What does this fold into?
Amino acid sequence: MSTPLQKKTTLATLPQEALKIILAHSHDLNSLLSTVASCRAFYAAFHTSPSSLIQALISREIDAAVLPEAIQALRAASFRRHHLQGSDLHLAMTPLFGEGRDALLNYRWSLADGVAAVRLHSITDIFASEFVLYYLFMLQGLSNCEQQDPPSIQELARIKRALYRFETYCSLFPPPEDPGDPGFKAAQISFFSSFSPWEREQLACVHESLWRQVTPAFNDLALHDISWGAYKTSYVDEFDDLYTERILSRGLRDICNISHAETYLQRYELLGCNMPNIANEFLHEAFVSYNSFLLTPDGSTSAIKRSKQPSTPFYHDPNLGPRKIWKWSHPNESRIDLAKEREYMSERACGYVFWDEERLDRTGLLDKDWADTIIETEEKINSMAPSFKEEQQSWEARSALFKKGIRGYWEKGKDPV
It folds into this structure.
């Protein structure tokens, strides 16, 4: 008696639920996309529930400690091209800040969103890894420890959240066409009020670290580009410079490209124009405006305005390090809500509001009064600045070449390129 032939199992004969389980176990989003494109069965299974599959992959690629901020930055990016004003800006911000951090996780993912989120996260990974090494190096000079331990997962996550916060700000508040728009100012105040003072200071830390990333490229052109010399573009050595603020307002992707450009030609391609543009009312000025909003005429923060600050941070950090170092460094209660103050530049260079409580305890910083602690750091960019006379002579030499129609790279004693 002959036995019936068994049906051969192929991908085409598998139920879609089985195919979706296979897809959900892809190594990363790129692997998922490659698998979906490999055959019709996977393609059909994917398109039955693309959002849930993308969410499963994103949850593995982006840590839960930063995922809401990643979604926040992603959603804010959709507003960037619209240059929202006044009440429209407030309405756009409500689902980003007004419904709490956990509510951001209720996001319906598209394929384009997933790709954009992974690309942005790779940039935050790069910057967080670079910044934490700089902060640890600066912190070592203040520490009782012979050597700093590697950064913890929580410390890196704080830096990444601040980077996402920066990207969200770039999308919501590109330099306005009308800097005096009261609705724009009110929306900025609402943005800053969504965070605790130490979270605002974390944003200030990464803002200054990103400035360190783009300024070498800017200064290369300021010192050597013939057109920039003809327009007397100065070497930049201050965080409040409006030219570099314009560059920073372009967001993390452009900043990453600029910071990793190694030659004059690469930098010119990313920054080049006859004369660089300034940015009014970007992040540095926004901090100044917000602090002015909080301050009363006697230089202290208003109790009424302080009462409007959030009772809890936007991120409920289980580690008390940032909160403790903030209170330690701000013994004057009347100014405890003010972030990015000039007298804390050296502390920000040490990344002081990113550290775990355990690291702070080992450094011994919290064992003494802030007023008795000397924290001094030197910006490498400042030490490389030309003298006023050297800058003037450079401008004159390049202006003469510019008038002759010559453009490109100039260096003293050499023919222009």
About this structure: The chain has a mean pLDDT of 89. Residues 44 and 109 are 18 Å apart (CA to CA).
